[in-house]
Design a protein that fits this description.
Structural class: alpha/beta
CATH topology: Rossmann fold
CATH superfamily: 5'-nuclease
Number of strands: 5
Strand content: 5-15%
Largest sheet: 5 strands, parallel
CATH class: Alpha Beta
Strand order of the largest sheet: 3-2-1-4-5
Shape: globular
Distance between the termini: 36 Å
Low-confidence stretches: 151-175
């Protein structure tokens, strides 16, 4: 049975990391999930930080993401939001969506916004993308020979994929995720 994870908006923002996470979801090792609210946050921040990108292109990317990962969309979590307390109330929808689908992890850069004490009540943990990718590779090393290498080939033109890390895929100017 696949490990269920919820991707937070901040890990879907950088295109290279989004690509890697979607490729990983398509291996069948994990069941990646996200919601319209997560996509709204992600693409709102992309549009704010990259006004040169056409809204039509961003909408196309959004639709392609939904088509790329089967059953990725989470619905029916809204009633859970009010009962959740997090340091940033605007992140409650993320945990609510994770609870709704029984996710074991939320993949996010914003670990401080998802305290272990709170998440443990719901048997969910927050994981940075580097740890998530490394843990997935340890659990199923075979995925790297296909998805990871194809991903790195798409971003490393010289073929040297050593040292490519999700840490380095963060945008140069981090958007304000509280908006």
């Amino acid at each position: 049975m696949a490990f269920v994870v919820l991707y937070d908006a901040c890990v879907l923002y950088p295109a290279p990391l989004r690509d890697l996470l979607i490729r990983l979801a398509n291996t069948g090792i994990v069941r990646a999930r996200w919601s319209e609210a997560i996509l709204d946050e992600c693409f709102r921040n992309i549009q704010e930080q990259r006004p040169d990108l056409k809204p039509e292109a961003l909408q196309r990317t959004r639709e392609l993401m939904k088509k790329a990962v089967a059953n990725c969309m989470v619905t029916g979590f809204e009633s859970l939001i009010e009962g959740i307390t997090l340091p940033d109330p605007d992140d409650r929808h993320v945990l609510a969506a994770a609870i709704r689908v029984g996710a074991q992890a939320i993949v996010t850069f914003n670990l401080r916004d998802f305290p272990k004490e709170t998440l443990s009540q719901y048997e969910v943990e927050a994981q940075p993308p580097d740890d998530f990718v490394l843990d997935t590779n340890r659990a199923s090393p075979g995925w790297s020979s296909h998805s990871r290498d194809r991903h790195h080939g798409s971003i490393a033109s010289n073929g040297d994929i050593s040292g490519v890390s999700a840490r380095w895929m963060k945008p140069a100017r981090e958007p304000d995720w509280s908006a």
